[in-house]
Sequence to fold (534 residues):
Amino acid sequence: MFYITTAIDYTNGAPHIGHAYEKVLADVLARWHRMCGEETYLLAGVDQHGQKVQQKAEAAGIGPLQYAQEVTLKFVELWKRLGIAYDGWAATSDPRHERCVQKILTALRDKGCLYKKSYKGFYSVRQEQFLTDKERGQDGQFGPEWGEVIELEEENWYFNLTAHIPWLRQFVTSHPEVVTPEFRRQDLLMAIERSTNDLCISRPKNRLSWGIPLPFDPDFVTYVWFDALINYISFAGYESGGDATLPDFKRLWPAACEVIGKDILIPAHGIYWLCMLHAMGFADEEMPRLLVHGWLNIKGEKMSKSLGNIVDPQELCDHFGAEALRYYLVRDTKTGYDSDYDPERLRMIYNSELANDLGNLANRSLNMCMRYCNATLHTPSGDDEPSAALRQSLLQAEATFIEQMNAYNTSDALGALHAHVSLCNGYIEQKQPWALAKDPQKAEELQRVLYHLLESVLHVGFLLGCVLPEASGRLLGQLQVDVAGLTPQSLAWGILKEGHQVQAPSPVFPRILTPEEKEKMAAKAAAKAAKNNA
Ligand code: MSP
Fold:
């Protein structure tokens, strides 16, 4: 089982392009594993509790649940539009999750992992946490990222995190696979050395009521991160008491891949989460693997309300189409690293790699097959050097695609397919099928060329299914092939059989026009209409 999860998104504001990138990446990886024939379960969801939601709801004059649900809807709509095919939905206000969190709290308390104490210190309202001197800047002040900082004395419940740090150090050191990419694991190892405090896991109800009540101390609710992290197991059926609406935990766990952004590796996932699981009694081999992606920035800057540079993915879907956005996000970002969102690059990459290169290849090949061969393909009888080179290139592209996808490197995987598509277009220019069609002596060679082109389109179209499910379906539909049961590993040359019939093409990747191009097109159409009327 390939159990893959994503971070659950805060419901304190609308989704932005960063959220979209993470879900698309996770969806592409999940589709990839499904395509490989692995049983796969993708969990996505929303993080609905906490101070930020409570404050936004108060400002809106509605209850926190209603507020969280309204924002949740925006995420759900976006994931539908972007084709995120999740199998499970984690919403932290779900009573099944609340029950699980409370069970875990009780069990940890019974084991002696939780204790109550009073603490006086500086508290960041925005980040909902007490600050220590480590959080002070060089000027000795708490920076603007902490928002309003107040002095507070409070009794709270603590998780004995520090007791688990020696285990964590040893575990992360000896299990390089636990964090990808490797440089993030190194960051985590350094952060573990700085982990000297236990974790406050409660908030007094008089300050924050929008959370899961502590089962053994009703004056408190659970700290939002402690609650949120548990979603990965609660919605996988942990301690569900046989609830048939949840999966069978034994089949899903451990998560093969938890997809998270770089900002929530330290301390949330890399320290709190692993130590929480350890405290609950999970063994080393039952720990999840973390895939840490970078951030999408705008012109090198972080997206923020104050900078007014937040990019709305729904608008991008309106403008470019959902699949163009999906392709761009996983093609132009090297998994693990930051990248800049740039609509001009989106247009350029889509137009060149999909509209021009793959779209034209498919259109031209199908058209020529219709025109010169009565829509019928014949398995090649002879061979020649360029055709052999093309088959070799496809083999290489597929091997690289498989290798890179398994290593989460979507960008290089797609780059390998694109390189093969470019080679196919070069092969058309070299072979000039339109010239071969004029010479009856060259009929065999013409058949061979068209066969090589369409077999290539089939393989590329099939593999692209994990990134572009809709376009892939349309391409394969025009080729009239059924890929049921086919896996990337079982792809072999010769899927198209003797006498195979194809359909007339209809463009799958219409060009994205610039506003100037659109204007020009409209002017041309108007001139034509005027001429027709005259
Ligand atoms: N609710 C927590 C996660 C709890 S997981 C148990 C949270 N929510 S978030 O809405 O702020 O972020 C959700 C995910 O989106 C995180 O993985 C975060 O890293 C990611 N991103 C937020 N902004 C991003 C970019 N600008 N670029 C890429 N991903 C970013 O954190």
